[in-house]
Amino acid sequence: xxxxxxxxxxxxxxxxxxxxxxxxxxxxxxxxxxxxxxxxxxxxxxxxxxxxxxxxxxxxxxxxxxxxxxxxxxxxxxxxxxxxxxxxxxxxxxxxxxxxxxxxxxxxxxxxxxxxxxxxxxxxxxxxxxxxxxxxxxxxxxxxxxxxxxxxxxxxxxxxxxxxxxxxxxxxxxxxxxxxxxxxxxxxxxxxxxxxxxxxxxxxxxxxxxxxxxxxxxxxxxxxxxxxxxxxxxxxxxxxxxxxxxxxxxxxxxxxxxxxxxxxxxxxxxxxxxxxxxxxxxxxxxxxxxxxxxxxxxxxxxxxxxxxxxxxxxxxxxxxxxxxxxxxxxxxxxxxxxxxxxxxxxxxxxxxxxxxxxxxxxxxxxxxxxxxxxxxxxxxxxxxxxxxxxxxxxxxxxxxxxxxxxxxxxxxxxxxxxxxxxxxxxxxxxxxxxxxxxxxxxxxxxxxxxxxxxxxxxxxxxxxxxxxxxxxxxxxxxxxxxxxxxxxxxxxxxxxx
Length: 497
What we know:
The chain is of the alpha+beta class. A hairpin with a 2-residue loop joins strand 11 and strand 12. The chain has helices at residues 12-15, 78-86, 88-98, 102-117, 125-130, 134-137, 145-157, 160-170, 199-202, 232-240, 259-267, 281-289, 331-346, 354-361, 377-387, 390-400, 411-436, 445-452, 471-479, and strands spanning 22-27, 30-40, 47-59, 63-66, 74-76, 175-185, 205-214, 219-227, 249-252, 271-275, 295-303, 306-318, 324-330, 366-371, 456-460, 463-465. The chain has a 9-stranded mixed sheet with strand order 8-7-6-9-10-14-13-12-11, sandwiched between helices.
């Protein structure tokens, strides 16, 4: 027996979970519970039933699941609304890959929570969800500790959708930077936290996060975790196969240099720019050549409102395959490094002596790059220097996203968390892009989110209204071309309207 017929019918096995005094609607195959009231039709004088706010949902597995914001009359709104509105393009790509089902909604909501609050322990997610407008926009989602843990594990063990999303991000990438970041860990339960090669410096166990970064769009396109004992060369060889694009230029860190990596890139018909480590013969030979006849160009970089100009000396050598090794010496940087060295001598820092200065000075301001790219030496130098914008993302992840001590305990969940880092970072990157295009380009991201978070959703006559936005807060949203909104509505994510 059901309360209607056809595709919108509500089966009897669902209705048995219906709370008294409510109605159930079948919307896109989901069964949603609404408050109801009897109202008189002024035209006919007859009484009829009218649905009010959504109270929760019903599933065969879990029965009635009430909305988690029940009892709250004030919800966090502004920062979540801003994040979702700015990330509309990312949301579209995410839906292409993950669809619009319940699991997709939970992943997207979790990413929004992370983007606004940083990477909080999974035990805190349910409360953050219940206290936010997300519980109204995306009602009746399971966001408890077990549910979030399952989200991460499923993302790590079933990566079809995440790879599809990654492939969408990789479309049209022409220049890609790849870099690694060490994350301290305090759990021995994940099977990946090992005493890595940087253990002594960190004073803790570690996992390594590798990120592939679209230089032209200024955003990451892939993130992956590796165990702490695996060195950078081995890790990057594994990752590069997932992000290898014919004709793409790859900008690498010095720790990735290896013949095997160069072969993978060559077989993939890609080019690279890679710094040569100082302990390699190639480096020492280029350093000797750098004492000879050199050419120069002017390198300009911006620091705030100022443009810093530097003379860069260079010398080029090529092997039989046409691969070039280029010696660069930035005279401005060399001067600064020498001043720092002399200051260390004055402060009697161990290892810094007058006797060692002459040898050290040969490397001040020096970088030696190996490349298969056809650009001029000046272009190659700019490519490499510009790639360090990726460090901005690592600073953001490390300091603003607060994930240094991860509360995740196995390999699969760490891979899932890496994907959530990617998605949350893309959401915040969307806000940053809006900032760049606005009159607020100099405003720091945390300040934007803090101001936006002052706007709350308040329950008035069973409706969630946005009434407390100040002029300063509305000016912020206007500058970013995002409407503040007047009331909470269901999100356009395949949810009931």
